[in-house]
Amino acid sequence: MIRDARVLDPEFVPSEVVHRDGEVDALSNALDPVTDGEPAETTFLFGPSGTGKTCLARYTVGQLREAVIDIRTQYVNCWQNYSRYRVLYRILEGLDRTIDIHRQSTPTDVLLERVQAYDGPPYVVVLDEVDQLEEPSVLYDLYRTHEVSMLLVANREEDLFAGLDDRLVSRLHGSRRIRFEKYGIDELAAILRARVDRGLTEDAVRDADLRYIADAAAGDARIAISTLRAAAREAGRQGLDRIPESVIRGAVPEARQEIQRKNLDQLKPHQKVLYEIIEEHGTVDPGTLYGTYRERVSDPRSDRTVRTYLNKLATYDLIVAEGENRGRVYRVA
DNA sequence: GTTCCACCGGAAACGGGGGACC
DNA sequence: GGTCCCCCGTTTCCGGTGGAAC
């Protein structure tokens, strides 16, 4: 039944983007100077998870690469590359200029100097999840680098700017902004249909079932595509040539659990212990949480580090921190 | 109204791991 | 082999906040 499993991967960049014409045009216009060998203005892509920001950024940059001979591009995920050093390193990787750079001995400033010394063809850098940067000052460094054009992807504009210093905010104030709204059910169903047509055999899924998935995903294309993939996998396991409604319905919670499992797998052992304690309690106050954690592990980290871990868990959407100060409680998301 | 205290998170310091250099 | 330098995870220190107790 599966013809091309790649298209069922949420990371897959399709050859045509569905229901984002306005956003594609806006981004193409922003990148237009690159076609004349000039740098593009800094552009923000804002919107909730699963609204196609990353997909569209990669798609548009891909189109640009097809149209322009002299261009360099790089994608940097700031969730994984959260320090100034790692961002600059990834950017130099895109220029093939990391050959003599050593993780443990080359100062960050040397990396920056090398990026700033670049004077080749336009270089378009996509900084995804830019609100996860621990050292946003790197944006200032890059802003001052003439040949580098930045596409900055983030969920919420307010959250991103709240974490930046005034100097950077004023510089970025005039930058172009493209906003993404959540997909409607019809739009999501159309996105799924396009993937089914390319990735599965004909009539593998009914339109009504695609609408069911779209509805359950609540506007999040990533969840919708994961659900479709989970359903296709289960139907394949059962040796079916179509995905029945019962499998579709079972795939909805399965896809959400899979996303959560992936997030849990990325945690360090101490972070997992904290998550388990919160899960066991349902809702737990900080004092009890810290105390239980200290009892449960042989080499507990300091309370301050625990707070850093808890913030990490919250950013992963694994837990929720409710209330302030003494009223603070933690619960699983 | 004042004091106490639990909690948060920023900033700086510390130390481990590892590569470069002599 | 010893020393220096760097990144990065962690700890230490501490100021801010606001509810509880007096």
TrEMBL record:
<dbReference type="GO" id="GO:0005524">
    <property type="term" value="F:ATP binding"/>
</dbReference>
<dbReference type="InterPro" id="IPR055237">
    <property type="entry name" value="Cdc6_lid"/>
</dbReference>
<dbReference type="Pfam" id="PF13191">
    <property type="entry name" value="AAA_16"/>
</dbReference>
<dbReference type="InterPro" id="IPR027417">
    <property type="entry name" value="P-loop_NTPase"/>
</dbReference>
<dbReference type="InterPro" id="IPR014277">
    <property type="entry name" value="Orc1/Cdc6_arc"/>
</dbReference>
<dbReference type="InterPro" id="IPR050311">
    <property type="entry name" value="ORC1/CDC6"/>
</dbReference>
<dbReference type="GO" id="GO:0006260">
    <property type="term" value="P:DNA replication"/>
</dbReference>
<dbReference type="InterPro" id="IPR041664">
    <property type="entry name" value="AAA_16"/>
</dbReference>
<keyword id="KW-0235">DNA replication</keyword>
<dbReference type="InterPro" id="IPR003593">
    <property type="entry name" value="AAA+_ATPase"/>
</dbReference>
<dbReference type="Pfam" id="PF22703">
    <property type="entry name" value="Cdc6_lid"/>
</dbReference>
<keyword id="KW-0067">ATP-binding</keyword>
<protein>
    <submittedName>
        <fullName>Orc1/cdc6 family replication initiation protein</fullName>
    </submittedName>
</protein>
<feature type="domain" description="AAA+ ATPase">
    <location>
        <begin position="39"/>
        <end position="184"/>
    </location>
</feature>
<keyword id="KW-0547">Nucleotide-binding</keyword>
